[in-house]
Amino acid sequence: MAETVLVTGGTGYVGGWAIVALLERGYDVRTTVRSLTKADAVRAAVAPRDQLTFAVADLMDDDGWDAAMAGVDYVLHVASPLGDETSKDPDALIIPARDGALRVLKAATRAAVKRVVMTSAANAASPASYAEDGITDETLWTVDDPKLPAYRRSKTLAEKAVWDFMASYDGPTELTTVLPGAVLGPILSADNVGTTRIIQRMLSGKMPGAPKIGLEVVDVRDLVDLHIRAMLSPEAAGERFLGTGEFIWMREVAAALKAGLGDQAKSVPTRELPNFVVRLASLTDPSLRALTISLGRRNRHSTAKAERILGWKPRPAAQTVVECAQSLIAHGVARDRMAG
């Protein structure tokens, strides 16, 4: 009989690709949705298959999680709770992230699943300032500081909470965490562009220029592959794995789009914006505020551990951003609908 993998958040960008990859590998997949009304959209995105079933569960509610875990062999916890990113109170993001992760892990341990692989973020293993030189690895933990963006704090504190729980847990369930960088790549549906919105904005011409920000681009398909490798490898139990991909400046992203798309990238900005312009714009544009900490960033993360232990190798960043853009164009969502 095929093993069963529970994927949290089947409506999400990473969740959808995780479902696709697991089904292709012959697993039975169960995915959580907050309402069964979302099930048809997931089926349409990943192609209907008998091996895909649904469970209703919300990261902010205990109900449904024990039923979702019944008979499950592995859990890929890739979902992110719907915290309020516009709130000035950091707890609006921190509490949902931390409590949601613990809720999933505790339900998994009650069901004695073999292993939980949880998606954290590279910013949970970063120095206090991205402007610091050097390459860091999984041994570094971000020091919680109220001055840091709430999203970065939420990822760090959520991951710390699950590892603290496992430190006092005595049972068969194992934990592994994966820490991705900027997740880009093709989309499965026009209704879910996920974290590709930055490429949308570049294609739409809504960006006046490229901010001096470096992204560690990981293709969503490679990220899912890393999760599955971490799920299966005996050596991955109890480990953190950075999955950041290649470092690329935003101006290099623009150049890759121009080279790969030709006239379809005519609206992509090529000039680099001075840092002070971005900081001034962030005073009136909330979406830019979280970016200001990354201006001029030099710190990078090492994926040597994932490559050595799991045999993981991500594809080049330029390939990912071009295929991301091609997918957005093919799905008719190259124009950033959020930007009007």
TrEMBL record:
Sorted UniProt keywords: Oxidoreductase
Span of domain NAD-dependent epimerase/dehydratase: 5-237
GO MF, any single term: oxidoreductase activity, acting on the CH-OH group of donors, NAD or NADP as acceptor
Taxonomic source organism: Kribbella rubisoli
Name the UniProt record assigns to this protein: Nucleoside-diphosphate-sugar epimerase
Similarity comment text for this entry: Belongs to the NAD(P)-dependent epimerase/dehydratase family. Dihydroflavonol-4-reductase subfamily.
InterPro entries xrefs: Epimerase_deHydtase, NAD(P)-bd_dom_sf, NAD(P)_dehydrat-like
Domain of life: Bacteria
Pfam families listed in its UniProt record: Epimerase (PF01370)
